[in-house]
Amino acid sequence: MTLDVILQAVLRYILLVIFYFFLFALILSITREIKRKGRDRAGTARKPLYSERKTGAFLIPDNYFLTKGRGDRYFLDEHTSIGNHPDNDIIIKSPYASARHAVIIFDGNKYILKDLGSSKSTFVNGSMVKTEKVLTDGDRLKIAGVTLRFVR
Questions:
Q1: Is the C-alpha dihedral spanning 117, 80, 76, 58 positive or negative?
Q2: How large is the C-alpha radius of gyration of the chain?
Q3: Which end of the chain, N or C, is surrounded by fewer C-beta atoms within 10 Å?
Q4: CA torsion sign, 109 to 152 to 144 to 88?
Q5: Would you place residue 43 in the very low, low, confident or very high pLDDT band (cuts 50, 70, 90)?
Q6: First CA to last CA distance, the chain
Q7: What are the residues facing 124 on neighbouring strands?
Q8: Averaged pLDDT score across all residues of the chain
Q9: CB neighbours of residue 129 within 10 Å
Q10: Dihedral Cα 95, 88, 148, 122, nearest 10 deg
Q11: In 3-state terms, what secondary structure has residue 75?
């Protein structure tokens, strides 16, 4: 065998390795993007269908720091967590929100908003919620600069 034949074989294998590396990197990138999109929609991805929900209340955001846009709805379950951590039911994309900022609990006939000791506090109709507050239709929740209207 001549040096040219050996060199051609080596270059083919190098090219094949580069091609497979490119395919691997492409698949990895697509997988990460799909996972990231899933985290961006985490506020709604885990929610059951409307017919399966036990409660009929929801929150409507008034600004754009949320995974949903202005005017969209976040339906409330029996336990709805709010904060900037991806595991929350409603994710607030603000550095001023705590990881576990607040929770809304449905106890059968009323919705109770509980502040979880957040550093920036939770407000309902302009008043700070120190521990918990029963929500009524039309209340405006303010969490880390994000306003949500409670609708029942």
A1: positive
A2: 24
A3: N
A4: positive
A5: very low
A6: 82
A7: 127, 141
A8: 80
A9: 18
A10: -60
A11: strand
Q: Are 75 and 43 in contact, with CB atoms under 8 Å apart?
A: no
Angstrom distances, CA of residue 74 to CA of 23, 47, 48, 56, 61: 39, 9, 12, 11, 8
Q: Collapsing DSSP states into helix, strand and coil, what is residue 33? A: helix
Which residue type does 40 have? D
- Using alpha carbons, list the distances in angstroms from residue 28 to 31, 42, 86, 112: 5, 21, 21, 43
Q: Say if CB 92 and CB 146 are below 8 A apart.
A: yes
Task: Retrieve residue 22's tokens.
Answer: 């490119």
- Pair of tokens at residue 30: 């697509």
Residues 85, 89, 94, 96, Cα dihedral to 10°? -70
Contact at 8 Å (CB) between 42 and 67? Answer: yes
